[in-house]
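Course assignment 3, question 2. Fill in each field.
Student: A.L.
Task: Predict the tertiary structure for the chain below.
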Amino acid sequence: MKFVATENLKPGMRLAKPIFNKRGVMLYERDSKLTSQGIQSIFNFGLIGIYILEPAEPLPPMTEEDREFERFQTMSVFTLQEILDDISAGKASKKLNGLVREILSIFGKYKGKITFMQNLRSSADNVYKHSLNVAILAAAISGKMDIPQTRQSNIVTAALLHDIGSLKVPESISKKPIPDLTEEENEQLMGYREAGVSLLRDNMTLDSSVMKNISFLLRDLRNLKKPVHEMEKYPEDIDVDILKVAYEFDVLTAMKYGAEPRSDIAAYQFLKHPRNRMNQKVVTALTHAINIVPSGCSVQFANGEKGIVLTENESDILRPFVLSFRDNKIYNLSDGKTYEEYQIADVLKTLDNRYVMMDEYKKYLDMLSKGEVQ
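Answer field:
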């Protein structure tokens, strides 16, 4: 699966994700082939791009939980749009608390890991979809960290509201690739976001912790843009750190103008790097909350070889058991010597030359059930 910008779409390409209209009605199912008419519809929707299957790539399996996640994303975006548009117009929002409760009920105490899926975006809905995804991720992370319910609620509320100021950003800036933004345009962007904080103070009665979370998140995002030697050092605030990790993970993996989205693995490596100053307890909680290197994930190693993940490693998600495509052997990346040779660099971006190794995989599962592999 790969991201293709709208201007590069061609008839015959196969959809990796369904396309919905503005009312949430599915127009194109997964594995549909694009037609000239379909491409024109995508242009009309203003989509930045879509996810496409490689020519020989099989349609990835989709569980009922995956479908429910996608359905929740699609429908909740419209609810959040109504909420943010009402607040921007100076009206009270009656649906905010209900959306916060729904997000927490689904993701706030989820026992396993969710398969977090990015959605298709346009300049018109980017703020709503970004804010909803940050709220979902923040709920999932805070649940794994056993954050008390009231604080969880304040974190998720802040996530839903933090980017309201971006609704006023002109398209000349919002549609410009981030690396191409001038220093002045970056300042304008932050100015719109900070004006959103004033808008919330003037038009809403929010818990002081919600306002603190939003203000400190924007402060930290501004701080992250500075050179390392100029960064301010602020006291640790777990709630803000949760928002920051959720924010960055969504921004890194979301489609955007002028750049391909990063894979979940690449985003995790960014968050893990010391120079990016993320709270590593929160980053670890993220790995417990969502699937980043799940079983069945095809990966590429730093040495150029490829493999498929057989069993996750909860202690270090980049050191799982893998089956090598080169020799059909199983390698335990938690072993120091093996890890020197096999280090996961990223997901396998093309599956055109993928080996079919189900027999080897079944042998591995049988060995695992007999205790012959640990």
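Instructor remarks: Residues 64-88 form the longest helix (25 residues). The radius of gyration is 21 Å.
Grade: pending
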